[in-house]
Amino acid sequence: MYKYSFIIPTYNSEKYVLLCVQSILDMHREDIEIVIIDDGSKDNTRNICKCICENNANVRLICKDNGGVSSTRNLGILSAEGEYVIFVDSDDMVESEKMNFLLDKISIDSNIDMAIYGMSFNYYYKNNCYRKDEILPPMDKRISNSNLCECIYDLFSHNCISPCWNKVIKKELLTCNNIGFREDMFFYEDFEFSINCMKVSENILLVQDCIYQYRQVEDEGNAGRRLLKISDLSKLSEQIEIPLMRLVEGCGKKEVLLQAKDIILDLYLTWAKEKIAVCDSNEIRIIQRDFRKWWDKHKYEVSKSRNEKIVKLLNGTPISFKMHNIYIYFRHGLAIRLKNLGIVQRKNGR
Q1: Beta strands 84-87 and 167-170, pairing class
Q2: Where are the beta strands (DSSP E) in 79-220?
Q3: Residue 344 has what pLDDT?
Q4: For residues 122 and 296, what is the distance between their CA atoms, to the nearest angstrom?
């Protein structure tokens, strides 16, 4: 009955879920369904979603006990009736006209297994959007699986790999290959999922259009606090490394394998930086110790800039990390307030 299934996991999303769903309904398509999976919300989210369903025949609400976003998305995949699935977080939105154009393009070409499109990271402070960063795929074309491997780092640097919500994915690929979100991962689970999807996608459409609007609420330490739950970052690295190397190993090109290794290294360095920002001195030393073991195992030739980051992580003192984090915190906070003040002034001047 439907060609496209929009899957929206919700949890305590009463402020934004209506805006999210409405941005999809504004497409005015008869070939789409919206599947809302409520993950045990404790606020008014379910009642809002029930009202939406009463007024829109192509919107369904499925309620479940709280189990995390991975189990919620997996239930959405199982429940979806469309040929393609599209994930949208409940506090985000899509650009209706641009999404329409993309889906029309896919409808014409049934050989497209996956489409990857651009997104805007909208940064909010006290309900004011003070900054928008558009991140687009590096090219606007259809590529094969082998082409994908050859430009893997370029795609990574343009944030095309990690999110699940900048993609249209053929559902058959997921069901036939038993691909879903790992429910034992609570950080970068969408990265692992996306890599597995890419591995089985023969034809991938890259679209340099900013279709997804991501809401980034001001919470600089959130990633670090989530990483505190992971005692050893090398284990997280392994969960990403295994599927990524499987993706590129068939290419047989040394430069492609090095690109994949650089992705893993860049991720580890980023995780360590974010985790250190919320750690005490003893925990920082453990992060350094674990990275040293990991790097001794993976050591390979790297660029000068990466080597500087590696040396800093290995040899930096806890106090130097803390002083740097304090500096970044105050500089970032001041920049936000100045930008937010500028927004308020412009609004008042109208």
Answers
A1: antiparallel
A2: 84-87, 93-94, 114-125, 128-135, 142-144, 167-170, 203-217
A3: 39
A4: 39
